[in-house]
Q: What sequence folds into this?
């Protein structure tokens, strides 16, 4: 069994469509989805966004079953200026050497960057903050879950591969403030808050539509890479 984690369904929907005979299982308020791809059994988990919910769901995942390895997938924000929306980051600091260096790992070299991934407590929507974090940490991208997923994998002696697709950069930022786009407590977009923001900031609407299109392309790039990973025998 191979585990694949995403923060949210918006990241996983294309990959889920690839699974054969998907079966949803909900227990203790946490849903997993099991299926098969290229003859391999797969369990998909949405970790949620941020430390608290991610730690809780990862703990429940490993209580239920054990895995050959886990792929931590999803979106990330760019810190490295060369990264563009849709590029992939293979996190060298969170990926087990036996997976990251596997001869069977076949990813599109022109779109994959090997570098350090940083996990932080909130969405980074400021160009100045991106520059500061890059200088301070030498990370090329930032997310809100991978550190906690890696800790759970280490605790349960499960090899992990960390692969993130870039969803936003300094030149292609979020179309609205982070707190408008996602409510961390509710673990979803508060559409009333978003609607009120758009009413008072109508210029944000075309930026939001463009962002949705970029996210669709980012999701496709991530799905193609994951399909290639599952096709291979990494271990």
A:
């Amino acid at each position: 069994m191979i585990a694949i984690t995403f923060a949210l369904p918006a990241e996983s929907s294309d990959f889920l469509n690839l699974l054969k005979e998907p079966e949803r299982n909900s227990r203790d308020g946490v849903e997993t989805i099991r299926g098969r791809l290229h003859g391999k059994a797969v369990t998909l988990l949405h970790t949620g966004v941020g430390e608290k919910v991610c730690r809780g769901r990862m703990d429940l995942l490993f209580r239920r079953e054990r895995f050959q390895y886990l792929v931590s997938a999803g979106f990330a924000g760019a810190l490295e200026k060369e990264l563009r929306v849709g590029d992939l980051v293979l996190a060298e600091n969170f990926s087990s050497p036996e997976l990251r260096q596997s001869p069977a790992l076949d990813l599109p070299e022109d779109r994959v960057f090997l570098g350090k991934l940083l996990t932080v407590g909130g969405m980074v929507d400021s160009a100045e903050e991106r520059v500061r974090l890059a200088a301070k940490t030498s990370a090329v991208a930032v997310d809100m879950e991978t550190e906690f997923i890696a800790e759970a994998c280490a605790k349960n002696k499960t090899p992990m591969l960390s692969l993130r697709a870039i969803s936003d950069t300094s030149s292609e930022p979020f179309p609205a403030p982070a707190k408008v786009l996602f409510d961390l407590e509710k673990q979803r977009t508060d559409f009333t808050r978003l609607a009120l923001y758009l009413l008072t900031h109508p210029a944000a609407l075309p930026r939001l539509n463009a962002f949705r299109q970029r996210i669709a392309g980012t999701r496709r790039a991530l799905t193609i890479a994951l399909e290639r990973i599952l096709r291979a025998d990494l271990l």
Observations:
- The chain has a mean pLDDT of 94.
- Residues 154 and 160 are 8 Å apart (CA to CA).
- The beta strands are 2-6, 20-27, 30-37, 40-46, 69-78, 88-91, 112-115, 117-119, 141-143, 160-168.
- The two ends are 12 Å apart (CA to CA).
